[in-house]
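A further point concerns the way the authors explain their paired sequence and structure data. Showing the layout once, in full, would remove most of the difficulty. For illustration, here is how one protein appears when written out as sequence plus structure tokens:
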Amino acid sequence: MKIGFFLPNATFDLPGTTEVGGIESFAFTVGEAMQEMGHEVVLFGGKPKFGRSHRTTKLQLRLFDYWETRRILNLGTRFQRLVQRVHFGWMCNRAWLAEKFDVAILAKPFDWPVAWRWKLSQPSMRVIMGWHGTDFYPGDSLFYPTVDAAFAVSNTVADQALRRVGSRPVVFPNPVDTEFFAPTTDAPQQTTMLRLAASGRLVGWKGFATLIEAIALARQNGLKLACQIAGDGPQLKELQALIKQHDVEMNVRLTGRLDHDDLRELLSSADAYVAPSIGDEAFSIAAAEAVSVGLPVLLSNRIGLREYLGSQDCLTFQAGDVKDLAKGLQELAARRMLASWNNRAARHSRVKTLFSARAIAGKILALQPGQGVSRSQKALSAVSGSA
């Protein structure tokens, strides 16, 4: 089977930078798994600008020039991203159609108009939509009938899709490289210090400011803790100032963006992982990687990953609530005394099959036309959604 991934920003830069996050990691992880299963896989992405580079991969890449959103008329971020994707689709349309893909995999509503154009020329192409969030815009539902099957990475996202387009996608999680992100032979020795890890793009909705404030509060309440936050982004200077303001320079370290090996080492050296997002986060591959390494996680209630984890692996707190997050940090420290809470091998075993890239790739390719998509419902939503 010949499979095409249409995801321009997957190759804009390295993972963990401002424009390359979980969805982009998904494309590489699933695409490489499909390739290992014997399929031909091609990823259409943006050609990195000067001074940038994309991650290494075994996938075939077809790279094309793209418009940066900052150079597009600012009528809102979603308008800029829609223009960027439609322009990119126009630029690579001939090359895409020449590949004659059996399956096309999309990850954003911005791509529906592009896929609609493909189907005019190649109606037999099976278009699969992966719902990883919202990114809606006026009139988007008019193009949704071009999608043949759909999946979502959490029930929360599936419900959002249902409200928008009138049909509910099939639900299964994002994949994780569970072979790479696995427990090390020797877990770090227990100390009186609670060692935390966090990672992601340094942008406001990721909630790192809330985490820093909660660490300061927990320290005031007598908790000994240290946190390393891996990532880069536009909020860097603001977070540095916040760390200084709360006098937690000895408790919080911003490591910058880490490559895969260094990130795994960071996770392996921690006692727990914290994902403090204050905005809706469809899944959180970064937190799932931490669980795969064997760490318990403390997640905000805006993160979809929590749907797949039980109380033996996950604690949750109210997003944006500094006091509730600080309380969660105290609970993490208390549970370190429980042998079952610290059993990294058992935790990895629980999620290894659930998050397996090959298993997820197989589920995606098994989706048949009509699964996760109701034609009659979509027709109705096209009218109401564009109103």
Remarks:
- Confidence is low (pLDDT under 50) at residues 376-387.
